[in-house]
Design brief:
binds arginine, 6 strands
Length: 463
């Protein structure tokens, strides 16, 4: 094992078990590009301010670029025994440049370095996740466009309630996803402050130019307090919470898909490429993807809980507990990306069984509200109309029939205001088409929703 960079104070070599226990390189290695980009900005600033010799600064930048290229190209393997990615990069730089490499860490601590790296990494990941959510939302918009007239029952308490369309149902999820984009955008904005220069905790005595580093790395501004700069992990928690809410949406959607695939519903059929079989039951076709998404939602919630609990009891400023932030937030990011990228093609290839949706909508008296509204339009108070319709429904249940099939005499026997046109009024298509208030399921209204969502995706995201 190479001498630790901090070896000077110590007379014994670190116990191998402690080294392994302490090391974060197995999971922070993924931040190598951000670490090197941050160091390049820092070294440039050190040269420009005259804190180190300009020649040496240029050499360091060149050396760092070389390391970046070598890792990218697979020519330099990240040492699994390194303490963390920050130490590894500096070690390699020093091996390559000698004493010049040792000047990189001037006016910097690993505490502000890691705070910088993680912010840069998470910003990059938000920028990866945003287009994935947009693609998922657009996928929903496309399926919705094809199903503007696909009548299905809308539910409350999982009881058939009122007629809607499949397009309308899908667009509910599109709205959730657009809010998820908004939350990611907010999170991005609040994490876009550059912490380098906070030092270990109390900034530095060198005449650094934090604003230069901030501008070079594309931050909006610099953090305003050095203690907060190194000990803040709000942005991890905020991101994880935005991702948890996103997963909650995917999980609810998944649950509906699981139901819709069942023989009890048969509203949709997943493509064979996105379903799995059983090892014993030859007839089975299981919606495993959606169940896994539902299951993995718990995992992301767990990551959020890990971060919240990790932070709640630690005094200012940096404490090693905070090294645990990475596995949690990285796991949340990986899980979300995996789920979305599987979910999109699964949705895009699923078959919609319009007839089954229509048939389900035809049973369950989901036009009863419209029947009552018919009477209201003819002057009855809603409460009376409600009661009359309730009695009609009871008669239908008794006779094993539907409101559509119940003879007009039955209607009239309860209320003289009923005329033959009641059958038009309670037709499912009429019930849907009349719900044309903004936000409603009528095809025109859903078309407007689709346009709105597409517009919101264009403007909502700041980064
Ligand atoms: N690997 C550490 C982390 O991820 C880097 C910061 C270490 N700082 C320290 N003083 N030990 O948090």
């Amino acid at each position: 094992m190479a001498d630790k960079m901090w070896a000077g104070r110590f007379s014994k070599e670190l116990d191998k078990r402690v080294n392994d226990f302490n090391s974060s390189v197995s999971f922070d290695a993924r931040m190598y590009a951000q670490d090197i980009r941050g160091s390049i900005a820092h070294a440039t600033m050190l040269g420009d301010t005259g804190i180190i010799d300009r020649e040496e600064s240029l050499k360091i930048v060149e050396g760092l670029n070389g390391i970046l290229n070598d890792i990218d190209a697979g020519k330099l393997e990240i040492d699994p025994n390194a303490e963390d990615i920050h130490m590894f990069v500096e070690q390699v730089l020093t091996e390559r440049l000698g004493d010049t490499g040792k000047r990189l860490h001037t006016a910097r601590s690993r505490n502000d370095q890691v705070a910088l790296d993680i912010r840069m990494y998470l910003k990059d990941e938000i920028m990866n996740i945003v287009p994935m959510i947009k693609e998922l939302t657009e996928t929903l918009c496309k399926i919705a466009e094809d199903n503007l007239d696909t009548v299905m029952p809308g539910y409350t308490h999982l009881q058939r309630a009122q007629p809607i369309t499949f397009a309308h149902h899908l667009m509910a999820y599109a709205n959730m996803l657009v809010r998820d984009l908004g939350r990611l955008s907010d999170t991005y904005q609040r994490m876009n402050f550059m912490p380098l220069g906070s030092g270990a905790l109390a900034a530095t005595t060198y005449p650094i130019d934090r604003r230069q580093v901030s501008a070079m790395l594309g931050f909006d501004d610099i953090t305003q307090n050095s203690l907060d700069g190194v000990s803040d992990r709000d942005f991890c928690i905020e991101l994880c919470s935005a991702l948890s809410i996103l997963m909650m949406h995917l999980s609810r959607f998944s649950e509906e898909i699981v139901m819709w695939c069942s023989w009890e519903f048969k509203f949709i059929e997943l493509d064979d490429a996105y379903s799995t079989g059983s090892s014993i039951m030859p007839q089975k076709k299981n919606p495993d993807i959606t169940e896994l998404i539902r299951g993995k939602t718990g995992r992301v919630y767990g990551d959020l809980n890990t971060l919240l609990v990790m932070m709640k009891g630690i005094p200012l400023a940096y404490n090693k507990d905070m090294q645990e932030d990475k596995e949690a937030i990285f796991d949340a990011i990986d899980t979300v990306k995996l789920c979305i990228s599987t979910f999109i093609p699964m949705l895009a290839t699923m078959k919609v069984n319009c007839e089954n949706m229509r048939a389900a909508a035809a049973r369950g008296f989901i036009n009863a509200t419209d029947c009552a509204d018919y009477l209201v339009k003819r002057g009855l108070p809603f409460r009376d109309a409600y009661k009359i319709t309730g009695t009609l429904v009871a008669r239908c249940i008794e006779k094993g029939t539907t409101l559509e099939e119940l003879p007009i005499e039955e209607y009239k026997s309860l209320c003289e205001a009923f005329e033959g046109d009641v059958y038009d009024a309670i037709k499912l298509e009429t019930c849907v088409n009349m719900r044309k208030a903004e936000g409603g399921p009528a095809p025109g209204s859903v078309k407007a929703q689709i346009a709105y969502i597409r517009g919101a995706m264009e403007v909502n995201i700041r980064p």
